[in-house]
Write a sequence for this structure.
């Protein structure tokens, strides 16, 4: 029977598929680290108090990238090239979601609207990250090889999501509510398309590596399309709601150190 746990166990147990999984994850996290570092450097003067939290967000993402690379080293594996069709962050940028890299590579300070756009994009993508890590935590929190990494990254992603909720509510109270809701909706609808396409691409690569049958691959693809259909109909709404989180000031301190993997 196909299940999230059985599928990921297959990927985990095979060196080639595990290296691809970790390489894709490490690349995305490292890209997020760079983006947040640049945003922190370019925050407008009126929002400089937010810069340390953005810096912490980026430091967490960098840490996650190091963790995935360390998991590969622990098994004597090297990172592998990330197929472009599986590059979630690059594909989101091509859809115009978030802040353009050309803007982040410059030295012109961002506007308050840019910060609202960044936080809205993060609120959507961190929802996805939090849910995915929660699933891995449910099944692999006690796994001998990846359990500690899964627990740490899951906790960080929950912190990132809480931070986005809290800061967006602050901006909404300051009069940006309509812009926030418009941007959240645009981001959510684009993200679910990109997530579908990336999921199909990743599963296709894993299927070739692991020798899945045509029937198994077709069943997985149908499941991915079914998830997209649900998200396109109504599921995207969970990505645009805002509520004050239980974790207040979740990024108010320094990032925790990455664990060592012997």
């Amino acid at each position: 029977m196909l299940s999230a746990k059985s599928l990921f166990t297959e990927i985990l147990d095979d060196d080639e598929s595990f290296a691809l999984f970790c390489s894709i994850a490490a690349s995305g996290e490292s890209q997020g680290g760079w983006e947040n570092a640049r945003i922190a450097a370019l925050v407008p003067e009126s929002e400089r108090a937010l810069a340390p939290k953005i810096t912490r967000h980026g430091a967490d993402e960098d840490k996650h990238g190091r963790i995935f690379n360390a998991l590969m080293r622990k098994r004597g594996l090297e990172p592998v090239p990330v197929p472009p069709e599986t590059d979630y962050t690059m594909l989101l940028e091509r859809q115009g979601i978030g802040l353009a890299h050309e803007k982040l590579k410059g030295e012109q300070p961002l506007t308050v609207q840019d910060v609202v756009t960044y936080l809205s994009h993060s609120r959507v993508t961190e929802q996805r990250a939090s849910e995915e890590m929660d699933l891995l935590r449910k099944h692999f929190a006690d796994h001998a090889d990846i359990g500690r990494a899964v627990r740490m990254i899951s906790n960080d992603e929950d912190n990132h999501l809480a931070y986005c909720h809290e800061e967006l509510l602050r901006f909404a109270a300051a009069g940006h509510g309509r812009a926030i809701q418009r941007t959240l909706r645009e981001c959510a609808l684009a993200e679910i398309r990109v997530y579908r396409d990336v999921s199909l691409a990743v599963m296709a690569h894993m299927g070739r590596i692991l020798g899945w049958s045509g029937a198994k691959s077709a069943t997985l693809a149908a499941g991915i399309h079914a998830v997209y259909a649900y998200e396109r109909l109504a599921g995207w709404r969970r990505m645009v709601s805002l509520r004050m989180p239980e974790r207040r000031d979740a990024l108010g301190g320094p990032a925790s150190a990455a664990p060592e993997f012997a």
Remarks:
- DSSP finds eight helices and no strands in the chain.
- The helical segments are 4-13, 15-42, 51-74, 88-94, 101-105, 112-140, 147-210, 214-233.
- The longest helix spans residues 147-210.
- The CA atoms of residues 36 and 104 lie 9 Å apart.
